[in-house]
Amino acid sequence: MSAVLRVMLDQLVAQTDADLKVASGELVRALIAHAPQGCEVEGIAPAAGGDGSVLEIPGLAGVRRTTLPRRELAGALQLGLATGIGGGMIHSPSLFAPLVKHDRVHENDQATVTIWDLRPWETPDELPRSSAGWHKAMLKRAVKHADAVVVPTHAMARRLGEISPKLSDRIRVIPGAAPDGFRVPTDEIGRRRDLGLPEGFVLLAGRSVASDALAAGFGAVARSGHEVPVVVIDADEGEEPAISEIAAAAGVPERLVHVRGSLDEADRGAVFGAAVAFVAPSTRAAFPWRTIEAMTLGVPIIAVDSDVLRELVVDGGMLVPATGTDAADALGAALADALGSTAAAERLAVLAADRGRVFSWLEAADKIWALHAEL
To answer: Taking the complete model, does pTM exceed 0.90, yes or no?
Structure first.
């Protein structure tokens, strides 16, 4: 009889977060590709109403649809109500999972969940109140009922242990990665033209709600001594004026600022393809998806020396102090070095690409299979 790992795939039929959707798809494909002998992967998804793409994943043994759509299912999971999902070995790429009392010893039921971002606990004001509240409630359920909680970095593991001390020995570290095959597309120039972007720019990623990080990024450009265009991706709709104001306050004129929203994989690859540097100024305890993608494509990295970025970037970029001096000044000096020397930029590009090869969804899948075997 096959051992079955059941994976929550709600994001593939009812997306609420673009990065989480990508992570869910990449992870389930990797779990299928690296399933141990005698094991198979099934999916769990909310009731019909999405695009049905979850059904098209090659190798998926089957999909169980709940009777509830995603929104109603989220509420039921938060309250610990019956959902019809059932037991068995369940892994979720998020906190979206049936976290209820179960018998791991006699019935072989397991429930493991993943947390990619600690903002609901550290900076809840950056999120809608309902979202922050749901995550906090689900973590309480995880403390009671999860067999393991996965986070992508040791720094986040330590912080989560401080937030929920009772989890301690159930926290596991398994990093994510860029999408499989992530690359600069052959039609990159045309894509950038369609996006209305220039060639050769400093790249930032973020929303105006994280204004401190964007201010540090724009400040780095202003202090670098180079008049260079700045492209910001992942902005929420309608944020262009607010982000331009942040840039102007930091010393970057509006004419140099280009703000774009969430981009698909090919467009992001095209944007990275013309970036002369990627500046990562955030000190938040969250997995930095764009930093990982930048390293994967060999874009020079200038990053704040935060706990999370230090652990992930290591020697794959220039890390500058986040405290003790103005982050914008330190970032600006590092950026000036990268922009002022072709040799320095090429060296940073090589270091980034070397480090980027460390991250793999297949390796993540192996660790998840090993986790469930351990449990």
So the answer is: yes
CB-CB contact of 328 with 250 (8 Å): yes
Handedness of CA 330, 336, 341, 343 (dihedral sign): positive
Is residue 50 within 8 Å of residue 24, measured between CB atoms? Answer: no
- Closest CA relative to residue 246, chosen from 272, 285, 280, 220: 220
Residue with tokens 């109500």: 81
Which tokens hold the place of 84? 């019809």
Tell the burial category of 273 from Cβ atoms under 10 Å away from its Cβ (0-12, 13-18, 19+): middle
- CA-based R_g, the chain, Å: 21
CA distance 286 to 156: 8
Q: Residue 296 is encoded by which pair of tokens?
A: 């994967």
CA 136 to chain CA centroid, Å, is: 19
Each residue of 252-263: pLDDT tens digit? 999 999 999 999
- Residue 303 dihedral angles phi and psi, to the nearest 5°: -130, 150
Question: Hey, CA dihedral for 9, 12, 14, 16, is it positive or negative?
Answer: positive
pLDDT digits (tens, 9 = 90+) for 220-247: 999 999 999 999 999 999 999 999 999 9
Q: Tokens at residue 63, please?
A: 């999909």
pLDDT at 302 > cutoff 60: yes
Query: Residue 190: CB partners within 8 Å, gap ≥ 6?
Result: none
pLDDT of 108 strictly over 90: no
